[in-house]
Amino acid sequence: MSDVGLVVLFVLGAGVSLTASWVLVSRLERVGARLGVSEALLGLLAALAADAPEITAAITALGGHHAQIGTGVVIGSNVFNLAALLGFAAVVAGRIALHRRVIVMEGAVAMWVAAVCFAVVVGICPAAVALALVLVVLVPYVVLLGVPVGRRYRLAAPARLASWLREAVAEEEVELTEAIHPRRGRGRDCAIAVIAVLVVVGASVVMEQTGSRLAARHAIPDIVVGGLILAGVTSLPNAVAAVYLAARGHGAATLSTAMNSNALNVAVGLLLPATVIGVGAASGQGTLVAVWYLGLTAFALAGAYLSRGLRRKHGVLIISAYVAFAGVVVSSAYASPIGVVLSIAVPGAIGLLLATSLARNAGKSPLKGAQLDVWRHIGSGEDSLVAGWSVSRVWYVALAISALIAASDAILGRRVILIGLLIAGPCCGVVTGRLAPTATAGIWAIALGVILGVPDGIWGTATHVAFLAAVVTVAIVTTTSAAIIENRR
Q1: In whole angstroms, what is the distance from residue 131 CA to residue 59 CA?
Q2: From its phi and psi, is residue 278 left (phi > 0), alpha (psi between -120 and 50) or beta?
Q3: What is the pTM for the complete model shown?
C-alpha cells in the first residue's frame, strides 16, 4: 500500500477510535447510573473508557513485538495527559482549585504507579511483580471509590485514617456529582457499549499497524511513533474532557481524570500485557520517558498541593516541560546531542523566566541578601514543612537520598542507569521550605549526575545530556518553589 493510503487509514482509524471512545464513555456512565455506582467510581469507569484507544494501541504494539512503541504509547500518553489535562486546562481556566485531601489521595496512587512503571521500564522489576504491586494499591483505591456512603463508616482502617479517607472521597464526589450527570441507562446502552468497545479495538489496531508500517518505511524511530504520535492522538478525548471540566471550575474532577487515566494506562495497557508478552529489553530512550513521567507527575502534584490548585503560570510550566520532553525524545532518537540541548534550553528558558516571575510575585517584598546565607538557614533550628523536623534534618535526608541513589547506580554499572532518580534529592529539599538548602540539594544532585555518566558508560552522550537536563529542570523548579514558600512564611 502506498504512503498516501497508509496515512488515510491512520487518520480514519484515529477518527473512528476517538469517536467510538466518546460513545463508550457516555454509555458506560448511563449503565453505571442505572446500577447505582458512586460518582467517584463512575469517574474511574469513564477514564477507563476514554483510555481505550491508547490501551488497545499499546497492547497491539507489544503483541507485535514493537516494545518501544507499546511502552511509548502508555508512558507518552501519561506525559501528554499531564500537559493537556492539567497544564493546558489550567491555562484555559486560569486556575484549577483543588482540595488538598483529594490531591494527597489521588497523588499517592499516581506516584506509586509511576514509580513501579519506572522500575519495570529500566528492568529493575519483572512485569508480573510490578502488576501485583500496582494492584495492591489500585484495588483498595477502586473499592474505596465504590463503597456506598453509608458503608464508609465501617471501613477496616484506623479511625483517623478512615475519617480522612471518607472526607477525601466526599470532596472528590462533590466535584464529580456536578461534572458527571448521566441519565439512567437502558438495555440498549449496554449493547451500544459492547459495540463501541469492538469498534475502538478494531480502529486502534488499524491505527497502530499503519503507524508502525509508515515508521518502518521511513526509518522513524519507534519511540517517536509511540511516545509522541500515537500517544498524543489517542489521548485527545481525555484532554478535551479535562479542559471542559476545568473551564467550569470542576478542579477535583480534572485531577481525577488525569491521575486515574494514567494509573489505568500503566496497569491495563502496559503491565498486564507485559506480564504475558514481555516488555522487551531496557533502553535509554524508554528510561528517559519513564523518568520524565515520574518527575512531571511529582512536580504537578507538588505544585497543586502547595498552591491548593494549579494556576495559569503552573500550567505554562507543565506545558514547557512537555515541549522539552518532545524535543528530547526526538533529538535522542536521532542521536543529536545539540538537539537535546536546544530542546531543553528553549522551553527551559521560558519556564525559568516564568518561575522567576512566580517567585518575585509570591511575596510582598523581595528576598534580602541575608536570607541567602546558606549556613544560616541550614544550621537554624527552624521547623521545616514536616512537623517536628528541623530544616537541617530534612536537608541531610535530601543529600543522603541523592548519595544513596548515586552509590546504587555506580555499583550496578552499565546494567542500570539511575541518574534520573536523582531528582528525589531536590524534591525532598523543597520540604525544608527554604531557598538555600533546596538549592544546595539541587546542585548536589546535578554534580552526582555529571559524575555518574562515567560508570554508566554514557558520559557526554545525548542520553547523558537528557538525564542531566531533567535533573537540572527539577532542581530549578524545586528551588523556585522553596523561594515562594520562604517568602510566604
Answers
A1: 15
A2: left
A3: 0.65
- CA dihedral angle for residue 14, residue 20, residue 25, residue 26, rounded to 10 degrees: 140
Judge whether 474 and 295 are in contact, CB under 8 Å: yes
Contact 117, 273 (CB under 8 A): no
Name the one residue in this structure whose C-alpha cell is 528517559. 288
The residue assigned the cell 527552624 is 382
Burial of 383 (0-12, 13-18, 19+ CB in 10 A): middle
- How does pLDDT run across 410-460, given as a tens digit for each residue? 877 777 788 888 888 888 888 888 888 888 888 888 888 888 887 888 876
Residue ranges in 387-460 assigned as alpha helix (H): 391-412, 424-429, 435-452
Query: Which CATH number, 2.60.40.1640, 1.20.1420.30, 3.30.1380.10, 3.40.50.720, labels domain 3-334?
Result: 1.20.1420.30
> Cell 525532598 maps to which residue?
428
In this structure, are residues 89 and 96 in contact, taking their beta carbons and an 8 Å threshold? yes
| Structure confidence at residue 157 as a pLDDT band (50, 70, 90) | low
Q: How remote is the C-alpha of 469 from its chain's centroid?
A: 18
Taking only the tens place, the pLDDT of each residue in 251-261 is 566 777 788 88
- State the SS3 of 372-397: HCHHHHHCCCCECCCCCCEHHHHHHH
3-class DSSP assignment, residue 311: strand
For the chain, which residues make up each domain, given as ranges? 3-334, 366-489
Alpha helices in 51-158 (DSSP H): 52-63, 67-81, 89-93, 100-121, 127-146
Q: How does 138-159 read in b/e, with b if 16+ C-beta sit within 10 Å?
A: beebbebbebeeeebeebeeee
DSSP state of 98: -
For 82, the grid coordinates are: 499531564
